[in-house]
Amino acid sequence: MRLLHTSDWHLGRAFHRVNMLDAQAEFIRHLVTTVREHEVDAVVVSGDVYDRAVPPLAAVELYDNALHRLADLGVPTVMISGNHDSARRLGVGAGLIGRAGIHLRTEPAACGTPVMLSDAHGDVAFYGLPYLEPALVKGEFGVEKAGHETVLAAAMERVRADLAVRAPGTRSVVLAHAFVTGGEASDSERDITVGGVAAVPAGVFDGVDYTALGHLHGCQTITERVRYSGSPLPYSFSEADHRKTMWLVDLDAAGAVTAERLDCPVPRPLARLRGTLEHLLADPGLARHEEAWIEATLTDPVRPADPMARLAERFPHTLSLVFDPERSPDDPDATYAGRLAGRSDQQIAEDFVAHVRGAGPDDREQTVLRDAFDAVRADETVREVAR
Predict the structure, then answer these.
(1) pLDDT tens digits, 227-243
(2) Which of 117, 192, 246, 360 lies in the 20 to 30 Å Cα band around 4?
(3) Which CATH superfamily does the domain covering 2-263 fall into?
(4) Residue ranges per structural domain of the chain
(5) pTM value?
(6) Which residues pair with 204 in a beta bridge?
(7) What contacts 214, CB < 8 A, 6 or more positions away?
């Protein structure tokens, strides 16, 4: 069976205030063409279809168009909700839509109930594991401690239990939306840390033939059977080096996996430039970036006059301007941002305690801080789901 694995469409999202709807529509056209030209048997979409719980109307219309075009191809599609989606909204009408071959899996309780498809070699069971917010689903899975690994492991127990009673030789595909150990994040994914731990081990998905992951925006292979497709479009400059693709996956009669990356359309290249303003304006080696979307980091010791306007004369698509003046390490103005760079909320809070009290938090206090951050994140999720 031939699968096309994609995820993280983020319909309705902009890129540094640039409307991406046309680029997203072009991707949908490319997706449909790819399904037809490569004779795909099933499409899997591993979450974050939308960028937020209540998407703009134009994004909903594009999603509706995508569903109709996929249904017209007669190729089954299996789709799960991600942490950016409202699972309840995305899942409205799932029963009716399923009759058209578009199978929406947004309910945690249905993790162990597969979509059954078949080819010349027999059945393939597709299990959709929507994004599982630990604080909200721990009751459903009967786990005492809310954590990503705990709830995903419980969901996979249901998958394995169902697979165990299927006919011998039934192949299996799991769709999941999670941060799996070994994956490389970018700046454009929403933090899903709980209990200080966001990542789950790839071994959670042992026992199935292929796991189609969503959440991280870079296409990557965790194991030969566990892969991220990544987002089809960039949503932060940290993705400047990404090659945006989908996975074309073939499952043979025994469940062995072969996979090929298929490129997605590039609306405009990204470039991150660094140097003094005069250097960026004069360097002939930067000519290849003049039509790219630009993030410029200026290192001038003193902020120059009208930097954005002057940059735009050479790089008309400059979208982000960062100031990082080159100073000596002992310059007090250079230290604060450097201390915060790359640090988590938990680490910053612990540093603050140490600064105020003269000693960092002990184990009990670290747990209190961690629980407080988890409670805030869970509350944000509940409020977004309720919108």
Answers:
(1) 999 999 999 999 999 99
(2) 192
(3) Metallo-dependent phosphatases (3.60.21.10)
(4) 2-263, 270-326
(5) 0.85
(6) none
(7) 7, 8, 45, 46, 47, 48, 80, 82, 175, 176, 177, 228, 229
CA-to-CA separations, 26 to 142, 211, 237, 242, 272, in angstroms, rounded: 43, 27, 21, 19, 25
The number of beta carbons lying within 10 Å of the beta carbon of residue 156 is 24
Tell me how far apart the alpha carbons of residues 162 and 170 are, in angstroms, rounded to a whole number.
11
| Residues 333/327, Cβ–Cβ less than 8 Å | yes
Helix (H, G, I), strand (E, B), or coil: what is residue 268?
A: coil
Cβ 177 vs Cβ 214: under 8 Å? yes
Q: What is the C-alpha separation between 296 and 309, in angstroms, rounded? A: 12
Straight-line distance from the first to the last Cα atom of the chain, in angstroms, rounded to the nearest whole number: 39
Q: Which segments within the chain are labelled E, that is strand?
A: 2-6, 14-15, 18-19, 42-46, 77-80, 102-105, 115-119, 122-129, 171-177, 179-180, 199-200, 210-214, 220-223, 226-228, 245-251, 257-263, 270-275, 293-298, 318-323
Residue type, 18: V
Lowest-confidence region among 51-60, 192-201, 309-318:
192-201
In whole angstroms, give the CA distance from residue 90 to residue 49.
Answer: 9
Cβ(209)–Cβ(170) under 8 Å? no
Strands 226-228 and 220-223 come out as antiparallel
Q: What is the pLDDT of residues 292-345, one digit of tens each?
A: 999 999 999 999 999 999 999 999 999 999 999 987 656 655 555 566 666 788
Tokens of 76: 């089954």
Residue 365: pLDDT band (50, 70, 90) is confident
CA distances from 12 to 104, 147, 235, 264, 350 (A): 19, 30, 11, 18, 36
Judged on CB neighbours under 10 Å (0-12, 13-18, 19+), 122 is middle
